[in-house]
Amino acid sequence: MRPGPVLHTIAALVTAVVLAPLVLPGYVLRYDMVFVPRQPLNWEMLAPADSLPRAVPVDAVVAAANLVMPGWLLQRIALVAIVYLAALGAARLLPTARLLPRVVAALAYAWTPYLAERLLLGQWALLLAYACLPWLVIAARDLRDGRRGALPRLVIAAAPAALTPTGGLIALATVAVLLPLRRRATAAALAAVTALNAPWLAAALTGPAGGASDPEGVAQFAARAENWAGSWTALAGTGGIWNAQTVPASRESVLVPVVTVLLLAAAVPGLLELRRRWAGAADRLFVLAAGGFLLAVAGVVAPAAVLLEWAVVHVPGAGLLRDGQKFLIPYALVLALGFALGAELLAARLDRAVDPAAGRVVLAGAALLPVVLLPDLAFGVSGQLRPVRYPADWAVVAERVAERPGEVLSLPFEGYQRYGWTDDVVVRDPAPRFLNAPVLINDALRVGAVTVDGESPRAASVGALLAAGQPAAAAGTRWVLVRRGSGEPAARVLAGLRLTHDGTYLQLWENPSAPGEVRVAGTGRRTVALAAHVSAGLIVTGAVIALLLLGSRSWYRPRTH
Amino acid sequence: MAKLATFIIATFAGGILGVVGVFAAASAVNPSADHVASVSKTDPQQGAAAYGAR
User: Fold this and answer.
1) Same domain, A371 and A263
2) Which top-rank group of organisms is this from (chain B) (predicted)?
């Protein structure tokens, strides 16, 4: 049987089962996942005027893609790509001549608590890094071996990962660790991936938000126990996300730690076998995975947590490390490869000792084990990834703001909120992406009873102004958007404003005394941001052209290593 | 002996597959399960504006 079509079929099946509810119309809106019909391409997407560039360059890429396709379609392409590429990439990366172990690797990497939990938290761009990692490892290994077209493939694999700062750092670390030092190819690869990270680096280095974060975030975003076995075991099974509301119900089962241990036990001989088959290269991958795991546990180990708290305050950008569980990506890949090879070894033994059919049955059971461990990932994490429709108010408000552009203050002054129209699912305020204007939202994060301060000085000052009982007009924005439902502002907050749209879900108020100018980053900052985005885009374009000219198709041929 | 082992392992794997299938189908078609999944973690004390809870 030809492995290529089988693996594509398996990847397609897994994708269909996980994302089944996406056949319904609408947008899946959950926490950080906010797609809108047409996201505007403006300076705020390239270089946020006030806040940290957490969504740079992903916002610009989404806005550019929205020029040729609607948001609902783009969201489906992105989510399908995540699951499909993760499954196919892990299957192709596994060094084996047999087909079934590849199927085991596909399911072990594409059916994980990590993927489920980050999907529920809406971090689709981070999951692109997850999906790209196997491909990046393949390309890095090819580059080590001097294979044709390896560098362009490495750039293309790293590009989706670098859509977010965290994914970009993971891609950069992967290249730095997997490739040998003091080689021209390594230097070229590092330079290219650094350039892919340039958009968010440029925006952060030139931005007004500073790089310091609230140390409270370290405890709040640290890994969390999901059952009786504690946070370490949760992380060992690639779970342990900080947010209890984005954990599939099956993770709380008493049996999960037992099955996790079974999975780890099967992975150990597999990892030894991986070392044998990838002499030298496997050790580097293990180092990468161990580094990611250490970052994940850092928040729950007392001395490391103290160090992290110090770092997020004093080291610019260290706030990226506070949600350490997201760095489990390389560990998840190594675990999947180890488990698949462990199952292959066991199957080979049974083939010899019992019957060839017995080995195949073991491999089929191993392929299903991740599904047994996490059955509720099926059907959009048991229906939680369910598309909803934006109320028509959003389009009306967007039109009004576009007619008279000006800064928008979004109230209630909370970055995340549940709405009736999202089926009571928490979602980030869609206004910054829906409206073609700078939108001032609160970047402080409420985790239970604790508020983790944001980094935007302007958001902090407006928050203080509102807390002091001042009217919203004092913030000086042309527009005040009120998202109706809960926590609506009192009448005195809206004093001095003129109501221009009064809908069921949104109200838009105009501030007659506010200046009409749109706050954007300064010219120098915009130039730097644009140069960084253009250079990253040129590198990706160059890689695609190089690959086409080389006619390299080794990604598409089954490899047995 | 070999056939017996194969039968036992196949029964075990088939049983797992069946349980998963029943579970997945039940969660897909049962609206009450959907409802529970989306609201069971909501803590009314937190209000509507929390990013999450530990």
Assistant:
1) yes
2) Bacteria
- Looking at the structure, tell me whether residues A359 and A428 fall in a common domain: no
Q: Given A386, A421, A437, which residue is the final one in a domain?
A: A386
Nearest to B6 among A355, A418, A446 (CB): A355
CB–CB of A175/A151 below 8 Å? no
Q: How far apart are CA A153 and CA A544, in angstroms?
A: 8
CA nearest neighbour of A374 among A227, A266, A269, A220: A227
Residues 6+ apart with CB under 8 A from A353: none
pLDDT of amino acid B49: 78
Q: How many CA atoms lie within 13 A of A253 on its CB side?
A: 15
B10-20 in b/e form (b: 16+ CB < 10 A) is beebeebeeeb
Q: How far apart are CA A129 and CA A109, in angstroms?
A: 13
- Beta-carbon separation of A362 and B9 below 8 A: yes
**Are B50 and A448 in contact (CB < 8 Å)?**
yes
User: Could you list the residue range(s) of the whole structural domain that residue A12 is in?
Assistant: 3-123+204-386
A410 and A434 share one domain: yes
User: How are beta strands A450-452 and A445-447 bridged, if at all?
Assistant: antiparallel
Q: Decide: B20 and A371 in contact? Cβ < 8 Å.
A: yes
- Residue B1, class by beta-carbon neighbours within 10 Å (0-12 exposed, 13-18 middle, 19+ buried)? exposed
Residue B10 falls inside a structural domain: yes
- Residue A521, SS3 per DSSP: coil
| B52 → closest Cβ in A383, A425, A447 | A447
The complex scores an ipTM of 0.81
A457: closest CA among A130, A211, A114?
A: A211
Total of domains in chain B: 1
Per-residue model confidence as pLDDT tens digits over A133-148: 999 999 999 999 999 8
Distance linking the first and last C-alpha atoms of chain A = 18
Chain centre to alpha carbon of residue A66:
19
Distance from CA of B19 to the nearest CA of A (A): 8
Separation of alpha carbons A470 and A58, rounded Å: 35
pLDDT for the residue A267: 97
Signed CA dihedral, A560, A137, A300, A373: sign only: negative
Q: Indicate the residue of A362, A379, A486 with minimum beta-carbon distance to B48.
A: A486
Nearest 5°: phi and psi at A416? Answer: -125, 140
Whether residue B8 is contained in a domain is answered as yes
Which of A426, A429, A441, A451 is the mutation pick for testing B, counting most B CBs within 10 A? A426
Residue ending a domain, among A510, A536, A556, is: A510
- Is B50 inside any structural domain? no
What's the pLDDT tens digit per position in A480-518?
999 998 788 999 999 999 999 999 999 999 999 887 677
Sign of torsion, CA A84 A85 A90 A96? positive
Q: Do A418 and B48 touch (CB under 8 A)?
A: yes
- For chain B, the distance separating the N- and C-terminal CA atoms, rounded to the nearest angstrom, is 52
Does some domain include residue A446? yes
